[in-house]
Amino acid sequence: MRRTLARARTPLRGLAGLAGLVVLLEVLPHTGVVSADYLPPASDIGRALWQMLGEDAFWTALGDTLTGWGLGLAIAVVAGVVAGLVIGSVPVLRAVTASTIEFLRPIPSVALIPVAVLLYGTDLESKLLLVVYASFWQVLVQVLAGMQDVDPVAEDTARSYRMGSWGRVRYVLWPTALPYVMTGVRLAATVALVLTITAELVIGSPGLGNQLAVAQTSGAVPRVYALVLVTGLLGVAVNLVARAVERRALHWHQSMRREGQR
């Protein structure tokens, strides 16, 4: 009973904090502490959001953002998992690629914006280039860490049973690496969304970021905040979905069992 009440209090506290923020945003512009030209009241932001929800252009932009995010994330996850399994399975290959990975991984994805524009202009491909590059490293590094965490006893047992490469990957490497893979996917999902909005905002690719840039240029301040709110809610939704997928994929893992007992 106490555990149920404790679980119920957490979302209620979150809603209370959100309600407090809305009240603060409504009151501040009216007090003169902050100019309404730069921070409109929450009621104005809500009206702009409601108006936006009735526009076809908004839903088209949302679809463009989700398309870029989903395609980029899918490509990055598949490439990261495959590359991680291959590199992690071959010690020589891991040693040869270590310096290259450490050199390429810290390069900021936004530094590739001129390259993306030069190659693809404002098309979807330019957005995908940034999203895939940023998300790929999140997955690859986690998969490589999972491959290093494989129990040597389990590997020796697989060899003693003369398991082939596929059997070793399926029964030894993959169960150990899967928690790391899901962590990488969760991190990559958030990074992919950030880079998608950034590409739309800076490059001008179709999507919510592009609409945000247009609203800022035209001086539609309430609409700017409404779009920022939408992107924030989108980020929360992405994180919740990633968490749910992680819990479903790792229902057998001890970390998920401990979490369920809290």
From TrEMBL:
Principal cellular location given in the protein's record: membrane
Pfam family, one: BPD_transp_1
Residue ranges annotated for the ABC transmembrane type-1 domain, each copy included: 62-242
Chain segments annotated as transmembrane: 69-91, 171-204, 224-242
A biological process from GO: cellular response to sulfur starvation
CC annotations in GO: plasma membrane
Protein name, as recorded: ABC-type nitrate/sulfonate/bicarbonate transport system permease component
Lineage of origin: Bacteria, Bacillati, Actinomycetota, Actinomycetes, Kitasatosporales
